[in-house]
Structures are given as C-alpha cells and as structure tokens.
Design goal:
The chain is mainly α and 261 residues long. It has two domains: 2-200, Rhomboid-like fold (Up-down Bundle), CATH 1.20.1540; 212-260, no CATH class. Helices cover 52% and strands 2% of the residues. It is built from nine helices and two strands, in the order ααααββααααα. The chain has a two-stranded antiparallel ribbon with strand order 1-2. Helix 5 runs parallel beside helix 7.
C-alpha cells in the first residue's frame, strides 16, 4: 500500500473531492429548508422535467444516512481518480456524472406486469457516480495491465467489492420497504459507464513502464562504452545483485548527460 502513494500528491486529488462534498452537503441543506420538495431536482425517467435531475440529483439525498453513505466513497474514489489518472480524471468524472444520469433517465417507469399500471419514480443521490468511478478504477488497472494501477484496482476491490450486489434489484434480497427505495438502476448505469470509460481511456495517461531488458534488439555502442567505463570506475556497485541495490538503470541517463557536457 505504501508504494502506491510514493508519487507526489496531486492537489487536485484533494481539492475536487472536497468541492464535490461541499456541493452535496449544500444541496442537502437546501433540501432541509424546502428548496427541493417532492421530486424537484430528481431524475424522472422519460419525462422532460426529469432531465434536470441529471445535473441536480447528485446533490440531493433522502436523509442523513443516504448522504453519509455516499460522501465517504465519493471522496475516496475521486481522490484515487485524480491522483492516479490525472490526465483523464476530468473527462472520466464528467462522463460518470452525465452519462450515468442520462442512462437512468432513459429507463422506463416501473410497470406492474399483472395489472399493467405504471409508476414514475424519482431518483436522487450520487450513487451512480460512485459506481461509475469504482468500476472505472477497477477495470482501468486491468485493461492497462500496469503494476501500480492494478494495485489501485485491488484496493478498490478490497474496500468496495460489495458494490457488485447493488446493480441488482434489492427486492430480490429483501422484502423490507427500504429495499424499494434503493436505486439499483443508478448503480447498474454507473457500473456500465465506468467499464466503458475504462476501456475507452485505456491508452491515455500512465501506461505500463518497460525496462531496457524488455527490448531484445536494443543495443547502442555508445551506451555500451559508457557502461564499461562506469563498471571500471565503480566496481563496488556490482558486488551485489543489482536489484537489491538502488535502481542501477537510472545511471545510464546520468552518464549520457555527463558525456554531453
């Protein structure tokens, strides 16, 4: 775990998660004082007035338990996203937000197969973004096959692996009334968007680093002379197995620079 965080801390990895948390709690405060009543600001599938929920619904939550349940994963997952995927973090976050919300809006209303009656649902909360980021972080490490990023995938799987059950209707597992209030549609939409984003951006940003021995045809007479000269002047560096010492390969660049001067 320690080696994953040896890179310099990216200030955006702290600033943007805190900004998102501030917006979520501000929206919840507005709800408390009655600015968003009934279904105002929520996603209502296939209705024009429900489109605005794509923008506002992540800031709205049903109760304290709901917003607390989303606050911790939002901060943690956004931190990992902006710290380890800085070049694509903004794109991934916005796609996670708007595409998962739009996918939820496209879902049909709940229909009773026995009576034919349908019921519009009002969907609020940031869980769609949570699922999109979690699935992006997990699958992106797999798609890129980068040792460090696979480590991030394992961290996400360790702490948020249970999210996989949230993409299924909770009524399958519980008869309690609260099960009907959990938006598995948002979870499923977020998971799909996260996987697609991980695949689309798999070649952008940090990639698997290759070492010199991974290039079987690599040879440079100039570099070879530099190495032989270095070995003669510093034989003590080769008394032990190289990988037990500080990375010996970095000295090649230093030798090149010294030669140029």
């Amino acid at each position: 775990m320690k080696r994953l965080f040896q890179d310099k801390l990216n200030y955006k990895a702290i600033f943007y998660p805190l900004l998102m948390l501030f917006a979520m709690w501000l929206g919840f405060l507005f709800q408390f004082y009655g600015f968003f009543e009934n279904c105002a600001g929520s996603i209502i599938p296939l209705t024009p007035e429900g489109l605005k929920g794509i923008i506002f619904s992540p800031f709205l939550h049903g109760d304290l338990g709901h917003i607390f349940g989303n606050s911790v994963p939002i901060f943690a997952l956004m931190f990992l996203l902006f710290q380890f995927y800085p070049k694509v973090a903004g794109k991934v976050f916005l796609l996670s937000w708007f595409l998962s919300g739009f996918a939820v809006w496209l879902l049909p209303p709940l229909i009773d197969i026995f009576t034919g009656s349908h019921q519009n649902i009002c969907i609020i909360g940031a869980s769609g973004i949570v699922y999109a980021l979690a699935f992006f972080l997990f699958f992106s490490g797999i798609f890129r096959w980068n040792t460090k990023l696979i480590g991030i995938s394992l961290v996400v799987a360790l702490y948020y692996g249970s999210l996989i059950w949230g993409v299924l209707p909770q009524e399958w597992f519980s008869d309690e009334e609260e099960a009907h209030l959990i938006s598995w549609q948002s979870h499923l939409a977020g998971a799909v968007i996260g996987i697609i984003s991980a695949f689309i951006f798999r070649k952008q940003g940090e990639k698997k680093k290759k070492f010199i021995w991974e290039f079987p045809n690599y040879y440079s007479e100039k570099d070879d002379k530099l190495w032989q000269n270095y070995i003669q002047k510093h034989p003590e560096d080769f008394n032990e197995i190289p990988y037990e010492k500080e990375n010996i390969w970095k000295y090649l660049d230093e030798l090149r620079k010294a030669k140029i001067k």
